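The aim of this short unit is practical: by the end, you should be able to scan a pair of folded records and say something sensible about each. We start with the first protein, listed as its amino acid sequence and then its structure tokens.
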Amino acid sequence: MKEHINMEGCITITKDEAMKMINDFKGDSITVKIIQNQKETNKIPVGDVEIGQTICNGKYVVVDRYTHGDACIVRKETIKNIRFGETNNYSKSNLRKYLNTEYLNEIMDEFGEIELHTVDMLSMDGDDSYGKCENLVSAMTFDRWRKYHKYIGNADCIEWLSTPNQTEKSNDTCCVRIVDSNGIVGYSDCYWNDYGVRPFFILKSSILVSVD
């Protein structure tokens, strides 16, 4: 068989050679997988995207990957002017409700499917009485923000984290950890202030995304 490999690495054969291959396969069960040209679609499975790479026209950053390939994503820009809630318990917060309803609809339209993940509401002074909660979208915990900061940088406004400063055990149900636009971590009253949030969520490795 005469073959020619072009600049894109594709093998070109004649029509007669193709027909001979088909005839040779008669009676056998074969599977053909057609792969679209990435240059045409500009989309690849998110499990193949490098950590730290932005996707979807710079809207999101891939910040981590689980062993089975699912990708952890953080929105690059903050969603602004959101109040945390009446207490610093993230599981009962207005912020959590907004992210898993109104904002969830937006990213479901974009990706089609989101994976559940756990938010650990361990307070900064080490109390675990708030426990953990399951989310499709969440505000980053302090630990996640610290781990992913090298990929996402500073926000353009003060942003909420889901980590409480203290808990009822220390007679503090109002203070939540925040990060200033200069990267300084502090705390603020959960009820009186409207800050921003950079949502965190997880995509299955097979979800196709455009790579910047």
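Turning to the second protein, read its sequence before its tokens, just as you did above.
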Amino acid sequence: MGRRHWVRTTKCQLLVTSLFVMLLGLAVTILTIITRYGAHFSVISGVSPEANPYRIFHNVAFYSGICLSMILVLAALLSTVATVRESVCLMAMGFFCFAIVFCALIQAAFWRYTNNSEVEDAMMDVYDSVYEEVRRNLSSFRRQELATIHETFLCCGKQSPFGETGGIEKETCPSEPMGTAREDMGQFHDDSRIASKRSKTS
């Protein structure tokens, strides 16, 4: 009687764990979709040139997130079926899926540690290229794209050493957050450049 009670308790724990893993897989799917189609990410991806690595980072993050969520959902389903049927083979397959997820997370954490500023630098390079094209009056379409970036990120161009707003900022920046947004964008631009220089020198 005691052994049967412990078996049922273990089964309930495994089923609850599988449920949480299923919810985790769904959460990863939602986060991946937000990363793919969110305004802050899609606006940069839409204006980034082919040579810029940000579009590659964006696609890799999307497909990696989808694969990770599918593996999590598959592991949860296998663990649930294995618990109900008491199948050792299905349980082994479920643990194998968990091992794949663990190895993928370790690899992602290692890449994040060794390349902590590459994504930020790629985003700033995209912004710099669009800003320079607008400054040189090379494309009116780029002016609209720059205005969209400013409106999405609530930023306003680059910080001027004289504290003045240039013609580009007057035409492409939102009217309400003009003062603080321009300072925040310039500070973010400077901090990202300093971090990039420090990482390269170290």
